[in-house]
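ok so for the tutorial part 2 we go from a plain amino acid sequence to predicted structure tokens. step 1 is just haveing the sequence, like this:
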Amino acid sequence: MGMKNLITSQLEVTGIPLLRKGKVRDVYDLGDKLLIVSTDRLSAFDWVLETPIPDKGKILTEASLLWFDLTKTIIPNHLITADLGEIKKRLPSGVQASWKDLEGRTMLVKKAKRVDAECIARGYLAGSGFKEYKKSRSVCGEPLPEGLLEASPLPHPLFTPSTKADEGHDQNISFEELKSFVGVETALKLKGATLKLYEFASDYSRSHGLILADTKFEFGFVGSELYLIDEMLTPDSSRFWDAQLYRTGSSPASFDKQFVRDYLEQTGWDKNSAPPVLPQEIIEQTRIRYLQFLKMLKN
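step 2 — the prediction. this is what the tokens look like for a chain of 299 residues:
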């Protein structure tokens, strides 16, 4: 089942080709550069919901910019600038947009040759990993000791790659499969960078009252050098928990859209027809969760 019902963005840029309209981001092609606009769209169960979450795109962009700056000594990233005045100077003449609406949600980045693999790091037993552990005492085929509970820290962080699917669900693959998929040298670089970034981000998050349970990164090549691309370490790509509320043995509340998924599960929606419109209360509480995450990260 692919992504459906992609709502029209109110943040369109005209005069440059639209390369891709993703679940959240609109990506425009500038030849050797890309313009990325983070919208307030929210997806759940392969649908983009009709109801946006106000300021979500700005929150995701601000968090990504913070992490890009913190991790640039670990691995280079694709960011050129997020300063809208600077971006406008670099765009060809004839480009038009509602610039005030793009403020705080737009990045000019280097165009990279994307590696078609999701690079996932897991430090805790959660989500699909916990489901697999209950069945086979493993996560993505990696054997784990007996007696772990939901949300338990893993003995060491795991690198669990998956295929990158533009539509539908990504599929977990083994490290050996990744090697055959992208080549041994690239696979080793991806694993090394992913685990280094996770280790740094986990320590940093802990010092700000957050637990980084798992996250996914995307990488691409600029020339022969591996770069971090897309977004990073936001509630859309990561499972963050409040350290003060963290307990093992149950699923801690996260700062992501799980709140919306839980609501949709309770509505009786069949997931095949258009999703129900979110009530104002759910929209506002979701927005508050995103804002709370950003506030903790910056404090």
